[in-house]
C-alpha cells in the first residue's frame, strides 16, 4: 500500500464524514454502491445481521428513506435538525483483491435539543476503486456500548 | 408528597374520559404504581427455551428488581433475587449462561441453582445459632413463578389470581397462537433483543400501542418516504412493507377491530400489508403448516389476525410476527422498551430472518417509525410538567363503548380504569 493510496482513502473517508456533518445527504448516498450494506451491529463481535438484531442494517433503499425523512424535516424526531461531527483516527487500509478494507476508530458527537451525546466505536469500510476515488460497498460501525442493557435514546443521523 | 393524596386521591387522577397530568409526571404516583401495580401483578420474565439444560440461567428485571431465573438439577425452574444474603452483592453479572452454582465474588458464599445456600468459607467462624439456620438460608425467592405454554412469568405477590386467570382467555389465545404458528408446536427465544429508551412515562407507550388514530398522522414522514423511494429495480423489502403498512387511510384505521378486556388488557386486529402475507416465503410456510396439520386446522391457526395483544401493565404480544415487547419503567419520566423475537421451530429459516429485520425496523433505536413515537412522548412529558391545563383528554368514543372500533379510545380508558382499581 503506497502512502499516496492510503492518503487517498483517508481523504475519501474524511469527505464521507464531512457530507454527513454538513447534511449533504444526497451527496453522501451517492458514495454508496447500489448493492451496499450499512450495518451497525447490536452485539459485540456480531457475526451476522441475519440471525440477530442490529442497531442499523440497511440497504441503499432503506438509507434513501432515512435521508428523505431527514431532508424534508417532516419528522418530529429531527426537528430542529441535530448537529453531528464524525471524528476518524487510527486508519489502516488493506487490499482484498479488487477491493480495499479501511478500518478506523470513530468518535461521533451529536447535539440535539439541549443535549450533547458522544459515541465511540470502530468503523470499517469495503471500498471499490473508481478512477481516483472509491464507491462504498459496505460500512460497519461497532459501538463500544452497542448492547448496553439500558438501551439507547433514538438515533437519527447515521454514524 | 405522599400526604397530598388521600387513599382515594390516586384514583381521582383518572376521570371520566380524562386523566390528570400528574398521572404521567408525579414521582409519588410512580412510586405507588410500583408498589400497587408492578409488585402485585404477573410480569413476563422470559421463555423456557432460555433454560434448556439443568444449570442454564438468565438474569431479568422484575418490577425494577434484578432477579436470576435458573433451571435446577432436578429440572424445576426457580427465580430468586440477585442479592447475596450475606452483604448484599450481586452474585451473578452474566446476562445468561450455565452454572453449577452462584458464588458471591465478595466472600464466596455459594448458592445452588435452586437458590439454596451450599457453603460459606470458614463456617466454624459463625456461632451455633447461625449454623443452625444455615440450611434454610437462600437467595430470596421471587414470591411466585409460573409458565404459560413456555412463557415464564413472576410475581412479587405471594397471593392473587393464578397466571391463567390473570391473563384471561383472550390473552392466552395470543400466546396459544404464537406457539401454534410453529409447525413443530414449539418456539424458541432467539436473535438477541433491542432496547429503546425514552424520557417519558411508561403509560404513554401503553396508550400509543393501541392508538389507531396516530399512525397515519405521526408516521407520515416515514410513509411518504416509502411511497417515494426508488427500489433500485428490485422488489420491495420486508422493511419497506412494515413502514408502508402504517399508511392506511384514517377511515381504514377507524374500521379496524379492537377489544378491551378485564384487568386492563386489550388487543387490536392485524394490519400488515398483503405483501407481507402473500409472498413465496409465506406460501412455503403455509404448505408446511398444511402438511403438518391438515388444511382446516392450518387455516384456523393462520387466520388468527391480531397485531398487538397488550397485557396490562407492560407486555405486548404479537402472535402474527412472533415478537413480544416489554416495558421496563425506570422512573416517572424514563422508560425502556425491550423487543424480543421467537424462532418458530419447523418454519423456514428465512422467516426468522424476516422477523429479525422487522424488529430492526420497528424496535431498534434507529427505527424511522417508533423513534417518532418516542419523540412525541418526550414532548408530552416536558409540556405536562407545567401550564394551567391539568387534564389530558381521552374521551374519543366515550358514548360508543359498546360497539367500539378503530380509533375509539376505549382501550386506553380501559387501561386507566384498571390503574384506578389497583391504586384505590
Can you give a write-up of this model?
The two termini of chain A are 27 Å apart. Chain A has helices spanning 3-21, 25-29, 60-72; strands at residues 32-41, 54-59, 83-96, 99-112, 115-130, 133-143. Chain A has three helices and six strands; from the N terminus they run ααββαββββ. With 159 residues, chain A is α+β, with helices and mostly antiparallel strands. The model of chain A has no long low-confidence stretch (mean pLDDT 95). In chain A, β5 and β6 form a beta hairpin. Chain A has a single domain (3-143), classed as Nuclear Transport Factor 2, Chain: A (Roll). With 424 residues, chain B is an alpha+beta fold. Chain B folds into two domains: 44-147, Rieske Iron-sulfur Protein; 168-423, Naphthalene 1,2-dioxygenase Alpha Subunit, Chain A, domain 1 (Alpha-Beta Complex), CATH 3.90.380.10. Chain B has 16 helices and 20 strands. Chain B has helices spanning 9-12, 22-25, 27-38, 128-133, 163-180, 202-208, 215-218, 220-228, 238-244, 250-254, 274-277, 280-293, 295-303, 349-363, 370-384, 410-423; strands at 14-15, 18-20, 43-47, 56-62, 65-71, 77-81, 96-98, 101-103, 110-112, 117-119, 144-148, 151-155, 187-198, 258-260, 266-269, 306-311, 315-318, 323-331, 334-344, 391-393. In chain B, the strands form five sheets. A seven-stranded antiparallel β-sheet of chain B has the order 13-19-18-17-16-15-14, with helices on both faces. Chain B has a four-stranded antiparallel β-sheet with strand order 6-5-4-7, with no helix packed on it. Chain B has a three-stranded antiparallel β-sheet with strand order 1-2-20. In chain B, α9 (238-244) packs across α14 and α12 packs across α13. The longest helix of chain B has 18 residues, at 163-180. Chain B is globular. The model of chain B has no long low-confidence stretch (mean pLDDT 94). Chains A and B meet through β2 and α3 of A and β13, α8, α9, β19 and α14 of B.
**Which range best describes the helical content of chain B: under 10%, 10-25%, 25-40%, 40-55%, 55-70% or over 70%?**
25-40%
- Supply Rg of chain A: 16 Å
> Most extensive interface, residues per chain?
A-B, 38 and 53 residues
Tally of helical runs of chain B? 16
Order of helices and strands of chain A: HHEEHEEEE
Helix content of chain A: 10-25%
According to CATH, what is the class of chain A? Alpha Beta
Strand residue percentage of chain B: 15-25%
Mean pLDDT of chain B: 94
User: Total strand count of chain A, please?
Assistant: 6
Report the major sheet of chain B. Answer: 7 strands, antiparallel
Describe the biggest sheet of chain A?
6 strands, mixed
Number of domains of chain B: 2
- The CATH homologous superfamily of the largest domain in chain B is named Naphthalene 1,2-dioxygenase Alpha Subunit, Chain A, domain 1
Large-scale geometry of chain A: globular
State the low-pLDDT regions of chain B, or none: none
Please give the radius of gyration of chain B in angstroms: 23 Å
In the CATH hierarchy, the third-tier topology of the largest domain in chain B is known as Naphthalene 1,2-dioxygenase Alpha Subunit, Chain A, domain 1
Summing up helix and strand content along with how strands pair, one would put the structural category of chain A as alpha+beta
